[in-house]
Design goal:
The structure is a homodimer. By secondary structure, chain A is of the alpha+beta class. Chain A has three domains: about 5-80, Winged helix-like DNA-binding domain superfamily/Winged helix DNA-binding domain (Arc Repressor Mutant, subunit A, Orthogonal Bundle), CATH 1.10.10.10; about 85-130 and about 230-340, 2-Layer Sandwich (Beta-Lactamase); about 135-230, 2-Layer Sandwich (Enolase-like, domain 1), CATH 3.30.390. Helix content of chain A is about 45%, strand content about 20%. In chain A, strands 7-3-10-9-8 form a five-stranded antiparallel sheet. In chain A, strands 4-5-6 form a three-stranded antiparallel sheet. In chain A, helix 1 (about 5-20) packs across helix 3 (about 40-55) and helix 7 (about 170-185) crosses helix 9. At the A-B interface, strand 4, strand 5, strand 6, helix 9 and helix 10 of A face strand 4, strand 5, strand 6, helix 9 and helix 10 of B. The structure holds a DNA duplex (30 and 30 nucleotides).
DNA sequence: TTTAGCACTCCATCCCCCGGAGTGCTAAAC
DNA sequence: GTTTAGCACTCCGGGGGATGGAGTGCTAAA
């Protein structure tokens, strides 16, 4: 059977009506919204066809029609009109983007919160490292005889620091020597290589100094590891409870717990895709089988990409969510790009000592 | 009327039964659990008295009894037995305490998550600064001609750092001079004083250097401000949905949204109190009027105290929650104390240059 | 003061009924 | 061949009783 333009129009009306009301849509309601004047009987014939073709479903014989995942997919691919954002919407997002960013972890969770606030659905955010990170630069700042601040910069130009402590007093010049050693021997290495090199140096270094080396390198390892996991968060899960499909506490609890406890298992867009929409059973993950996900990615410097996603019922307002999320993601990319241009993020590697 | 020992015993049985089942408790069920053998009729008489005295309530004439807030209060104050933690429980908490702490913000949100996991109720955590913080020490590390890393240590000995950027190239020795200036002029000041001093210096400093000063001081201000707000988080809100009193999505949504959006408005224990229990209407906040809160505090260094709380229905399992939370809070105090002793947190102020 | 006995109350549940929204089908009209 | 009016049919949802069980309050006796 063929999908005539009228069938498409009817499908579109059904979907958009169902998106806004969550109630099955009947022939009468469709007739009222259709451009051409046709009788409800005609529409009923078309509806029967659409059900047969798999684009719509019928909860029971005497109810209206509800879109199927296949119907939503067609809608998203062909029928959905690009939603232009209103001035208020762009302004709201721009305002959100002007947030201060303390560090990357902060950005991730803030981005998640903002995305949730933007669309009134639960949202998630994560940062993906494209390849394994390494340390780019070390500094050691003496505080007192047995304390110093370790500052490390990772290859994505993020800076971390912590106050560390040694058992034995260390002189300032020794600390400076150690910093040189660290920059010579421990930059641009993977975690495993760093551990190995540390072991190698254990015998060759004065014990008092080796302790310092040890805590500093372990701190660096911690930074590297910390920057790879725990980088996914869920925000705005409470938005679920406003949706009629989640009035059932068990259902809401199930999805909410999954999202909060396993944010790292939420969908990631295919490499290269800026935005991806996954509808119902298109989700691999069992817990998301009857929800839809809209997920967008943005660039953070050369080596990383960030990701924000929205989880909602299959009848989610794809047009609005997609428009807002994509604008938001673009804004984030620009924000990071700007910093990059300003020198806030990547730094030419040639600019300071290192060896290997 | 007097509160005889038998009345107290009955009250205790009612409360403990209601805590575990959330169902009104009848005279027959009470008789089965009472130590002395009395008839249900006698118990009914006693129950009528307890209702009259305000310790119990009756949903309707022919239902069992339900504890009132006054009843819970008496229970918590007098009747509740100290709950000894099992080996598994202490082990679980100890394991949780062995978490790595990256920075304070991380600790707060982790503590909240752990508390929630420990008690299966929503939990919140915050850190309170006892007095206004200031910067204790600055360092500037040149990266390339127009980039440098600013490292600041606040008076509570936390270290923050960020890569910053200037318009004009700055020489390394100039950067060192600026660091001295910052340590002389901008340490141990409140935010407002820092801004004022920055303004004062605007005319007296070479423009190229002032830009550096400006971004560095503004970064410090951001750190100070960031460390005071956004320091409260809610975790495990999804636990609400498992409770029969929150099967109603609207009710759950209301409380959950409040907790997630305004964690800073959640109860803080009185100064000096290590643990506090607030039952139903004892909560000042309207949103918590028919929930109970158990909140414990722990010490972070000299100048700060942390705080973890649990929100649940008034029939929450006070004994278990209080025992676990207090053990957890003690563990956190010890953890910070240990670091302190090890020199990881506070540092004698005399140990490096400063004036003012 | 305690207890047995008993009538009473009230909720929860089931069931049935019924109206309304919506359908599918048929037959006529275009 | 397509569209439309008409009509019988289906099914959900909500409003009313019935019903039974858990629990009470009260009375009168122990």
């Amino acid at each position: 059977m063929e999908l005539t333009p009228r069938k498409k129009e009817i499908l579109k009306v059904v979907i958009e009506s169902y998106i806004s009301t969550a109630e099955p849509v009947g022939s009468k309601a469709i007739a009222a919204q259709l451009t051409s004047k046709v009788s409800t009987a005609t529409i009923r014939n078309e509806l029967a066809d659409l059900v047969e073709m798999g684009y719509l479903e019928q909860p029971h014989t005497s109810a209206g029609r509800v879109p199927s995942p296949k119907g939503y997919r067609l809608y998203v691919n062909e029928l959905m009109e690009q939603r232009a954002l209103s001035l208020q919407e762009t302004e709201q997002i721009n305002r959100a983007l002007r947030m201060k960013m303390q560090e990357l972890d902060g950005v991730i969770s803030k981005a998640g919160q903002m995305a949730a606030a933007l669309v009134n659905y639960p949202a998630y955010a994560m940062a993906g490292v494209k390849s394994e990170l390494a340390i780019q630069r070390f500094d050691l700042l003496g505080v007192d005889a047995t304390s110093f601040i370790a500052v490390v910069m990772t290859e994505d130009s993020r800076v971390s620091s912590r106050l560390l402590h040694t058992e034995l007093p260390v002189r300032a010049d020794a600390l400076a020597d150690l910093a040189v050693l660290l920059n010579e021997q421990f930059t641009h290495l993977h975690v495993s290589q760093m551990s190995r090199r540390l072991m190698d140096l254990a015998g060759q270094t004065a014990p008092g100094l080796f302790i310092v080396l040890n805590v500093a390198v372990n701190y660096a390892i911690e930074v590297l590891q910390g920057s790879e996991k725990n980088r996914a968060v869920t925000a705005g899960a409470n938005n679920l409870l406003k949706l009629p499909e989640f009035r059932d506490a068990d259902k809401a609890h199930e999805l909410m717990s999954f999202m909060v406890e396993n944010p790292e298992d939420l969908p990631v867009p295919a490499e290269g895709a800026h935005m991806q929409i996954l509808i119902g059973p298109e989700n691999v993950n069992e817990a998301l089988k009857d929800t839809s996900v809209v997920v967008a990615s943005y660039d953070i410097g050369d080596n990383m990409r960030g990701l924000i996603g929205v989880v909602g019922p299959t009848r989610m307002d794809y047009a609005t969510v997609a428009a807002r999320l994509s604008y938001f993601a673009e804004g984030l990319t620009k924000m990071f790009g700007k910093q990059e241009k300003e020198g806030l993020l990547p730094v030419p590697k040639e600019d300071h000592d290192r060896h290997e």
